Amino acid sequence: MELPGTADIVIIGGGVMGASAAYHLAQRGLNDVVLLEREEFFGAGATGRCAGGVRYQFSTEINVRLSLASLPMIERFRDEIGHDVSYRHCGYLFVATNEKDVAAFRRNVELQNRLGVPTQLLSGDEVRARLPLMRFADALAGTHNQKDGLADPNSVVMGYISAARRSGVKAVSRAEVTGIRLKGNKVEAVETTQGSIETRLVLNAAGPWASQIGQMAGVHIPIVPCRRQMFTTTPMPEIPEDFPFVIDFAQSLYFHREGAGLLIGMSNIREKPGYDQSVDDDFELTNMEAAAARLPVIAGAGRVAHWAGLYEVTPDAHPIFGGTPVDGFYIVGGFSGHGFMHGPIAGKLMAEFILDGSFSTVDVSPLDLARFGEGRLVHEYNVV
Ligand SMILES: Cc1cc2nc3c(=O)[nH]c(=O)nc-3n(C[C@H](O)[C@H](O)[C@H](O)COP(=O)(O)OP(=O)(O)OC[C@H]3O[C@@H](n4cnc5c(N)ncnc54)[C@H](O)[C@@H]3O)c2cc1C
Prior knowledge:
Mean pLDDT: 97
Helix content: 25-40%
Structural class: alpha/beta
Radius of gyration: 21 Å
Number of strands: 19
Low-confidence stretches: none
Bound molecules: flavin-adenine dinucleotide
Largest sheet: 8 strands, mixed
């Protein structure tokens, strides 16, 4: 598709944030929207590499409220957008193996219950009874919510992009943004490998690359890329249909059903910030050993696929929503490893902010860019 010379707004990044924002802006009547993605396919960044987990179980009110708004949008996706996104309510089961995490889990369950999320606190014995194939002799407690689960990230991205296109949005792939032209303190144009577009509004939805886009406009965006990886296994008939999304919290080690096998991942706490998306073979071995210690039947399975992607990490593990010191330059990003599930509501909130000047569906105004300079950080405990 040829790039238009002008647009009311240019969105940079064709992952879940950019796609959702484009759709929601068009829904609100702003149709002269151009969405730019540098890769051949939309969703080729963090979104297409993610585990697809969706959950209500967070430790801060604002994240629970984002889930309360966003997950029903994923449930309604087929009716509203016309795409099946395979939402499965397999439940998330967080397992605590130390007293510090048990205390945090108790507080989290109280908070979630107060906000209307029916998460249950489980004893160590209840965890073991729920997971008979797993070795969790050290489990002290668990938290479980059946409405947490999984959905398909690529279907969400393509659903939003197709629906946005039907409303007139121009979504262009293989268009890399190389610069942002300012006039004084205002956005004037976006430069790309396919030409430039004059515009007064730019939404930076570049995920792990958001700080690079910020630099083009002279704005410091404290989002750091950090590699995370996972692998899938051959079919494992021993794993029951109702096997939940299990998270061994202290090790950041997780398992969920993927087809007839499992998807297994683990966060490498020693990973240095960077854009490398190749699989670290040494760490994969560490991950496999940790997984086999928890779930010995894995020894009989083979690896089918493995890949790595980038978390987009902020100093307080909360996203950034809203304006920047440059007029017309907006940011939505930095979801720190749980942005797929919050993508639907995030795009809607950005459409509200850009068109109305405020957020109405969920008040995310505390999650502005200015908070980092002003020391107003909001820490999230349930980071996997
Ligand atoms: C291994 C892994 C597992 C995860 N698991 C989960 C999970 O279970 N649940 C969950 O909710 N979240 C999960 N996440 C996090 C989730 O994937 C992200 O929070 C979310 O996808 C971020 O979406 P985004 O649109 O901001 O970024 P992206 O999807 O990365 O989109 C940004 C896009 O911008 C494009 N871009 C960058 N620079 C330019 C440029 N100069 N010009 C044009 N385009 C550009 C990129 O190519 C990219 O497609 C996981 C992430 C990883 C890496």
